[in-house]
Design brief:
Its main location: membrane. Keywords: Cell membrane, Membrane, Transmembrane, Transmembrane helix. 80% of the residues lie in helices and 0% in strands. By secondary structure, it is mostly helical. It has one domain.
Length: 194
């Protein structure tokens, strides 16, 4: 229990603090509602779980051995987040339409280029793997627990978006909201690059 509580706290902190995933969930919740955002939430959780599992099996060692690989992944992640920010902002002719929802698959695959997700996975692999367990069993355990803890934390961001969505009934407010969320996502992308 002494080892489990810090791990649970870390998972809640990493899932509940602002980041690219949560900014997308606020926007999706605001525009599409909670129920239609669930595939994105599940995709993020599955992507994080798979990423954590693979990292615990040894992928994190590649980043230590080849820091250039980590830098390339960070750059790819930044570029992808900037594309998502552009998509969220919408084209000038279509700013009155809600942005397209991020699918389960897109959300899951996004974790591969999300720097915050990599930090989370590498930290879990290096700090929170259960001692005395086989590597596959420990990796499966921490991945599953991370997904279970992550679901309600990221759901709160989508529900926050749902609450804001009621305010977004006018096209002018929706344009301002999309611009703010897109700028926030772009800023996070640039900050994660450093």
């Amino acid at each position: 229990m002494n080892e489990l509580l810090p791990f649970l706290g870390y998972c809640a902190l990493m899932s509940g603090t602002p980041g690219p995933n949560n900014m997308m969930l606020v926007a999706s919740g605001a525009h599409h509602g909670y129920r239609r955002t669930l595939p994105t939430i599940f995709g993020m959780n599955v992507g994080n779980a798979v990423q954590t599992f693979i990292t615990c099996l040894g992928l994190g060692a590649l980043f230590v051995a080849w820091p250039l690989l980590h830098s390339a992944l960070r750059l790819a992640g930044t570029l992808y987040l900037l594309v998502l920010a552009w998509r969220l902002a919408g084209s000038p002719a279509a700013t009155d339409r809600p942005p397209q929802r991020v699918s389960f698959t897109e959300a899951a695959l996004m974790q591969a280029v999300n720097p915050k997700s990599w930090v989370r996975a590498v930290t879990i692999a290096s700090v929170f793997m259960p001692p005395g367990w086989s590597v596959p069993a420990g990796a499966l355990f921490v991945s599953a627990v991370g997904a279970v803890i992550g679901f309600p934390c990221v759901s709160m961001w989508a529900l926050f978006g749902v609450g804001i969505g009621r305010w977004l009934s006018s096209p002018a407010r929706r344009r301002v909201f999309n611009a703010i969320m897109a700028a926030s996502l772009a800023l996070l992308a640039v900050l994660l690059l450093n």
